[in-house]
Amino acid sequence: MREAVLRACLDLLVEGMVELPATEVAGRSGVNRATIYRWWPTPADLLADAVAFHWDHRIDPPDTGSWEGDVRAVVTEVAALVDEPVERAIMAAMATGRYPAFSAVVMGAWRKSLPQWTGMVQRAVDRGEVRPEVDPYSVVKILLAPLIATSLLGEGGTSPHELDQLIDLVCRATTARPG
Amino acid sequence: MREAVLRACLDLLVEGMVELPATEVAGRSGVNRATIYRWWPTPADLLADAVAFHWDHRIDPPDTGSWEGDVRAVVTEVAALVDEPVERAIMAAMATGRYPAFSAVVMGAWRKSLPQWTGMVQRAVDRGEVRPEVDPYSVVKILLAPLIATSLLGEGGTSPHELDQLIDLVCRATTARPG
Predict the structure, then answer these.
(1) Residue A109 has pLDDT above 70, yes or no
(2) A4 touches chain B (CB under 8 A)
(3) Is the pLDDT assigned to residue B166 strictly greater than 60?
(4) Contact state of A138 with B165 under an 8 Å Cβ cutoff
(5) Pick from A141, A145, A179: which is nearest to B178 by CB?
């Protein structure tokens, strides 16, 4: 039942109904409004849970044992993820700047997962693969941003050649033993 | 008169009226519809000209004489540019995926300016500062994408510390003499 409600929310997001109107959520999930309000008192609660449900196990940073392996895995997985309709809908709604409460919920979920991402960089520092002076957050950003920007603005995603280039640039930017 | 029309278009973009309805453009610019249709037969013509007008001299890649100087100048200028209302409105409209003709016009304008950007990288290669094997387009992308992604998704732009980190990472990723 929880899953039916959250899936209905994700469908509504894809259709641009960012406010998640309770009548729509009830109609599509077959769960009545009273129950929805009891479990998720505000639309923000509903959205936060829908985003958490959507991201669950989807954006776990990899742990391949090597920095280059992790970078390659992240780039490959995230490039596919950001082209999914739900992900595109979430980012497009944020990009309009018209739904600050929505953006706050999504950014909150992102910040909650951030220690896992910076932890991936920290493990590589601990293995001596990445320079200890790097700012892990900036590394995560430079890794993900080209994929996000291409999905939002570009036509048809990032090519395999561009993914290889991104992996190479990020590894060179961070590696403890240059060359 | 051309300027009045194009400024009216940019105002409409900021307000989310991406289709640039001729009646609105005429009303705001004080130029009659017949004249607008004569000069810009289609909304795409109008949009292309408005974007060109807006970008004119705004996104000329710098030529400071050094790669690090150029990278710093780009990052500083673009970080300010992507937070302007017109720029945010253009990117938000593209991000919705609902205006393919609009996106095509903007991407066309961007592609037209692309040789200047890759030329900036090529000059650094010619000076021996940047590795000749880099793909100039990928370098431009990794330089601009974090600024674009932060403007579209983040709250309150990129901090000076993050700009410094980005500059450092890009220089290390590209430099011919690492270390």
Answers:
(1) yes
(2) no
(3) yes
(4) yes
(5) A179
* CA A14 vs CA A19, A92, B96: distances in Å: 12, 10, 10
Distance from the A2 Cα atom to the nearest Cα atom in chain B, whole angstroms: 28
How distant is the Cα of B34 from the closest Cα of chain A, in angstroms? 32
What chain A residue is nearest to B13 in terms of C-alpha separation? A96
Torsion, Cα B68 B71 B74 B76, to 10 degrees, reads -70
Q: pTM to 2 decimals?
A: 0.89
Q: What is the pLDDT of residues A37-54, one digit of tens each?
A: 999 998 889 998 998 888
DSSP state of B62: P
A135 touches chain B (CB under 8 A): yes
CA distance to partner chain B, nearest, from residue A122 (Å) = 16
DSSP-assigned states of every residue in A44-110: HHHHHHHHHHHHTTTSPPP--SSHHHHHHHHHHHHHHHTTSHHHHHHHHHHHHT--HHHHHHHHHHH
**Euclidean distance between the first and the last CA atom of chain A, given in angstroms as a whole number:** 55
Residue B165 CA, distance from chain mean position = 22
% of chain A beyond a pLDDT of 70? 97
